[in-house]
Structure formats: C-alpha cells, structure tokens
Design brief:
The protein is α/β, with parallel strands linked by helices and about 350 residues long. The chain has helices at about 20-35, 65-70, 90-95, 110-115, 130-140, 180-190, 205-215, 230-240, 255-265, 275-280, 300-310, 315-325, 330-350, and strands at about 1-5, 40-45, 55, 80-85, 105-110, 125-130, 145-150, 170, 195-200, 220-225, 240-245, 270, 295. Strands 3-2-1-4-5-6-7 form a seven-stranded parallel sheet, sandwiched between helices. Strands 10-9-8-11-12-13 form a six-stranded parallel sheet, with helices on both faces.
Length: about 350
C-alpha cells in the first residue's frame, strides 16, 4: 500500500522532548515502512522518519494545521489510504469534496466530545479510537462503531534500568489541570511522602496552573522539575517508588505515561476513569497480592488512602517484573500490525 501518515505541525520527528500523538505518528509511519509499505509522513520541516518520505509543512510550532493541509492537499490522490493523527483532520475536507477517493482513518487522540460535535461529512469516516472506553464513548455520542487500535510504546526503550529505587513518588505528565498534578501534590503532602513532578510547561497554555503547583511544592520533599527528554523519562520511571496519574478531570483516551511507567516496573495509581481500566493492571493478583484494587481510585480520599497504603509496601522484584510483562501487550509492533490490518480493511471495503 501507499500510505500517508499525518502528524501535527507542532513537533518535528523524531520528537526530542516528551510528546504524545506525534510519537505515535512517527512509530506508525516507521513501522508500516518496515513492513514493506510505501509511506509518506506529514510533519514539520527538518523531520526525519527512516524509510519514509517526509512532506514538510513549515517550521515546528510556526504553522497551523489548516496551513499545513494546503501544503499536502494536492498529494492526497497519490495514496491508497490516509492515517490522520492530527487534531483537526483536514484530510476529510479533501475526501468530502471528492479530491481523494481512498479511506481516511481518523485517529482520535483526545476525548471524543472534544474532537467531534458532528462527524466528518463523508459516507464512511473510518474513525479509530485508541481504547475501548473511547470507542464506547464514540458510539454513545454518534451512534456508530469505531475501530480500536491501542497506542504502542517502544519496549526496547521502556524497560527497567536496574538502578536503585528511591522512596519518592512520581508525577510525569504535562502541567495541565486535567492531568491532576495539584491532586498528586496534595495527596503526597497529606500522607507525608516525597514527590517528583516532571512534565512539559511550554505548550499547556496554563501558566497560572503551573504557578499553583509551584506554590504547593516546597522544593525539597515536593519538587517540580519541568520537562525532560523521552530518554530521561526512563530514568525517572526506573528509580521512582511508584507513579501517580490522578486524571480525575480527564477521560483519558489512552495515556502513554502510565504504560511506559509499568514497562519500567513502576507501579501506577490512577483514577478509575477512561482507559485506565484497560491499561492499568487493576485487580491483578500477580501485581500486588494483598490489595490490588488500590491501583485505581475514585475520589481524592481514595487517592490519599492508596498513597498511604503504597507507602508501607516493599514491592518485590517479581511484582515489578510482572508490571513489565503486562505493559508488553501495548507494544509498537502490536500497534503497527493493527494499523496495517485497519488500512487493508479500509482499502478493501471502502471504510466503516
């Protein structure tokens, strides 16, 4: 197949810092090329994606998706299938106007209600969700089914480094209010445990929220470290005692960081909301024999109780190894195989 993978104009590929869907688009394109398909990827100028043609759309963070679309629009008829990971998915405009006859797989990287009030005006939009929870939400809102393709992580990168574990908890996500850094800080302060907060502060558009988190931190027991590279996240996951992902305000469609942490043998406490029920080993006796239900919480009080409970645990190496085995189901290879399967189905049937 001749496949076009569309990323965003925000980050060049490969991503040097920590990002989400751009990393998925990069791996998606590379993986399909490695399987023998002819692949082009839409990304900022200067991007590199081995085995793929890069269609540059301007310097990163200096081009919007509409302008980017105008730069690749004329190329669309060359492709058998489009996998659109972008936020606004302008490829559907070309399809609606008859400029592109093939299927456009619209991958949703945010909660359904924030992406589509109405579906693209094409007969078979071929929507792809990144968790079953998101697919269920999509069907409830729009009355039709979507296909599911879980995001994948690089298991060669995300694995324990074998360094000593600290007694410090970890929060690793961008400093957006929906990610719940303030909840993590307040819970750790209440229990009296240490916490490191790592995450991007440059693209969130919430400077007051960052100030709030900084005011809650004391710089010693509770430390805000700012952003880091993807490679550095492996060190954070490998030395942390456990990670907090309190997504109370956000129906997380997938959540890369919790799965990456698990792959590095780092237990995760997350909110019982969105895809966390699918990506976090909830109720897995092999993970924590005495109280596995503590991995997911439904209130701030339960979050505090779980942090308190974890504080007294000494996670055995077998338990941490079991977390890595659990995370292996969310590999890049499985993700790429699934995208190949969906592309072949869409080309054969015209979509869904």
């Amino acid at each position: 197949m001749h496949v076009l993978v569309i990323s965003t104009p925000i980050f060049s590929l490969p991503v040097s810092g920590y990002a989400g869907l751009e990393v998925i688009a990069d791996h998606c394109a590379r993986g399909l090329a490695a399987k023998g398909h002819q692949v082009a990827v839409v990304a900022p100028d200067g991007s590199a994606c081995p085995g793929c043609e890069v269609i540059g759309v301007g310097l990163e963070r200096q081009t919007n998706e509409r302008t980017a679309f105008l730069r690749y629009r004329a190329r669309l008829p060359e492709f058998d299938c489009v996998i659109d990971h972008s936020w606004q998915k302008h490829a559907y405009i070309a399809k609606a106007k008859g400029e592109f006859k093939g299927p456009v797989l619209g991958v949703m990287h945010a909660p359904v209600n924030t992406m589509y009030q109405t579906l693209p005006p094409v007969e078979r939009p071929s929507m792809v969700c990144i968790s079953q929870d998101q697919a269920d939400h999509f069907e409830a809102l729009h009355g039709r089914k979507a296909r599911v393709c879980y995001n994948g992580i690089d298991l060669d990168t995300y694995r324990p480094l074998g360094i000593p574990r600290s007694d410090r908890f970890l929060f690793l996500a961008r400093f957006s209010s929906i990610k719940g850094a303030d909840l993590a800080i307040k819970a750790c302060r209440e229990v009296g445990v240490s916490l490191d907060l790592v995450g991007d502060t440059s693209i969130t558009g919430e400077p007051d929220y960052l100030k709030q988190c900084l005011s809650l931190a004391d710089g010693k027991r509770i430390k805000v470290h700012g952003g880091c590279s993807r490679g550095e996240t492996v060190w954070w996951y490998s030395q942390a005692f456990a990670m907090l992902h309190p997504n109370q305000r956000f129906r997380e469609p997938f959540g890369l960081a919790p799965v990456e942490a698990l792959a590095c043998g780092c237990p995760v406490i997350a909110w019982n909301f969105g895809a966390m029920r699918e990506t976090i080993p909830h109720g897995e006796a092999a993970f924590m024999d005495d109280m596995p239900e503590r991995t997911l919480v439904g209130s701030f009080e339960e979050l505090v109780e779980s942090v308190q409970h974890y504080k007294g645990l000494g996670f055995r190496s077998e338990q941490r190894n079991n977390l890595s085995k659990w995370a292996a189901k969310f590999s890049i290879q499985r993700m790429v195989d699934r995208y190949e399967e969906l592309c072949l189905e869409a080309v054969r049937t015209g979509g869904w």
